[in-house]
Backbone:
């Protein structure tokens, strides 16, 4: 992965739309930022983050607007993929699968976050989705490798 792609990923993690602004794609960048802010406010994401980091998972669950929160992973990972693919001309074939499956698994993590426990610990709307992200990456990577292998044969 090139330095440009890594930089784009990290800026996108900080705020969806920033890499697009840095590349001069103003409309797309402003759209991603506007959507991220809207979903953030409507879902109460900042409150969820604050409470989750302070160990108040039950309160985070009470504050979460799940109808809005479930939109965030798709926007987040789509914005990240868009920044990744635009970072330079060479894109790994099927690289979108890693982002897509991360979005899927994080969304499922959000859906189960108010009831799913690990060893009796309720992780809530921040920590369970965060734990689901690497699983999505791994599933996307495996599917990518399988498809590439099938195409070669």
Residues:
């Amino acid at each position: 992965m090139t330095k440009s792609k890594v930089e784009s990923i990290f800026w996108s993690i900080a705020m969806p739309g920033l890499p697009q602004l840095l590349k001069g794609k103003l409309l797309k960048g402003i759209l991603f930022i506007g959507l991220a802010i809207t979903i953030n406010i409507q879902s109460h994401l900042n409150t969820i983050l604050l409470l989750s980091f302070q160990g108040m998972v039950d309160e985070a669950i009470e504050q979460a607007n799940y109808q809005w929160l479930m939109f965030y992973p798709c926007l987040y990972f789509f914005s990240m993929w868009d920044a990744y693919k635009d970072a330079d001309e060479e894109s790994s074939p099927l690289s979108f699968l890693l982002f897509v499956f991360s979005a899927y698994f994080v969304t499922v993590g959000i859906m189960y976050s108010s009831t799913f426990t690990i060893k009796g610990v309720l992780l809530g709307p921040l920590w369970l989705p965060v734990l689901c992200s690497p699983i999505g990456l791994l599933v996307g990577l495996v599917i990518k490798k399988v498809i590439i292998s099938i195409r070669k044969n």
Summary: Residues 44 and 63 are 7 Å apart (CA to CA). Strands lie at 117-118, 121-122. The chain has one domain: 3-152.
